[in-house]
Amino acid sequence: MTKDVGSAAPSFVDVLRVPKYLPVFLASALSLWGDNIARITIAAIVFQRTSSPLAAATTLAVSYLPAVFGRSLVGPVVDRLPYKWVIVWGHLLRALCVGALLVLVLTEAKLLTIFAVLVVLETIGGAASASSMILMTDLFPDRQYYARAIGLNALSEQTNQAFGLAVGGALVAWLGPGVGLLADLVSFLVAAITILIVVELRPVSGERGKGLPGFVRDLHRAAGDMVHHPVLARFILLSVVACVGIAAPEALAVPIAGESWWAGPLMAAPVAGAVLGIILITRRDVRWQNSSLIPLAMLMPLPLVLTMLHLPFPLLAALWFLSGMLQAFMVPLQATFTLVTPEALRGRIFSLAGALSVAAAAGSYLGAGWLAQHTGPEAAVTVCAGVCLVLVALLGLRWPEVAVRQAVEAAYAPSAPASTARAA
């Protein structure tokens, strides 16, 4: 059933009934669960060995930085190969990397060796991530269902992240570091098998340059299209700016909690808040969602400013939960960005946009860790939140409201084709 832009969104149950989406959704959820348990496992191991907030934050940054390089270069590759095979092989190769990581952790290998494997793991993941976004546009030709599915995916991601982070620290203490990594390995294998069985093989579309010169031209064209687009450029800039505030609590939760068991719950608090925020924002029509991007982005860092007051852990977790709720603006931002991007350029532009967002997250982790090393972890979270607030306010002064509104009307119109054109 096709819905008008301003009508009520379809329910999550309606979305899950779309053919082939449910198994893809479950496999992705399982993979995310394993990933986040593995993330806090490695961060906790590094902090235990070094007692350094900067080292713990660097661990998270290392898991992001290679994707900047990897995603930037794999964009044209995604556009050249059927996305089914890109996703399947991406999952299998990442499972192999996690297996190597498991051996290194259990044998207490050097941290540099563990970081090297993390670099390879995350570099491989860039292609699968971009291809998965293209898969979603094919599964949901009705864009109202697509917008709701993006919200459901984000809800699943945040829920699994909250669960994985909350229990990950306990698993390290009770069962050892190998459990989380083993769960991550199995999740990649299950995801690869699911995509192999469920997803149809579709040929690539659009013209592609030949050889290395054509590859470089494709990458250059994608960068130019994204930078000069009146809507895409502002959307990716807002995503980058928001990372300054969003990343700091996750990067510094372990140092703030110290030896207490609050490390996992603190990391999970903003993620759990995002779950509620996603549920609330996806119930509204897409016009309201997209018109609220800047207001929500400005409110998001405000609760984090109070972190420097050294509040009791329950109150601090509540403030971070509230900040997480306000992060829900990222859902319509991602959905509209995807639909506004021309179909033939989606692999390249998704990869480049992802690289920029990942670079911003990694830089925020490192910046927060450096500040914590010199001022304390609580003060560092407050400084990052203040910088984020100022940058969002400056971006809001020149926000292209008319162009965004026109892009939303075109992208979510009932008759909108899959290759929605640029905004006017």
Q: Could you name the CATH topology?
A: Growth Hormone, Chain: A
Number of domains: 1
- How far apart are the first and last residues' alpha carbons, in Å? 28 Å
Kindly provide the name of the CATH class: Mainly Alpha
Note the total helix count. Answer: 18
CATH-assigned homologous superfamily: MFS general substrate transporter like domains
Count of DSSP strands = 0
Largest beta-sheet characterization: none
Strand/helix succession: HHHHHHHHHHHHHHHHHH
The average pLDDT is: 78
Radius of gyration: 20 Å
Summing up helix and strand content along with how strands pair, one would put the structural category as mainly alpha
Share of β-strand residues: under 5%
Shape: globular
Describe, in plain words, how this protein is organized in 3D:
This protein has helices at 12-16, 21-50, 53-62, 65-80, 83-106, 111-139, 143-175, 178-198, 211-228, 232-257, 263-281, 286-291, 293-299, 313-326, 330-340, 346-375, 377-397, 401-411. The model is unreliable at 415-424 (pLDDT under 50). The longest helix has 33 residues, at 143-175. The radius of gyration is 20 Å and the shape is globular. The protein has one domain: MFS general substrate transporter like domains (Growth Hormone, Chain: A). It contains 18 helices and no strands. Helix 16 packs across helix 17. The chain is mostly helical and 424 residues long.
Per-chain topology:
Blueprint: H1 12-16, H2 21-50, H3 53-62, H4 65-80, H5 83-106, H6 111-139, H7 143-175, H8 178-198, H9 211-228, H10 232-257, H11 263-281, H12 286-291, H13 293-299, H14 313-326, H15 330-340, H16 346-375, H17 377-397, H18 401-411
Helix pairs in contact: 2-3, 2-7, 2-8, 3-10, 3-16, 4-6, 4-9, 4-16, 5-6, 5-8, 6-16, 7-11, 7-15, 9-16, 10-11, 10-15, 10-16, 10-17, 11-14, 13-17, 16-17
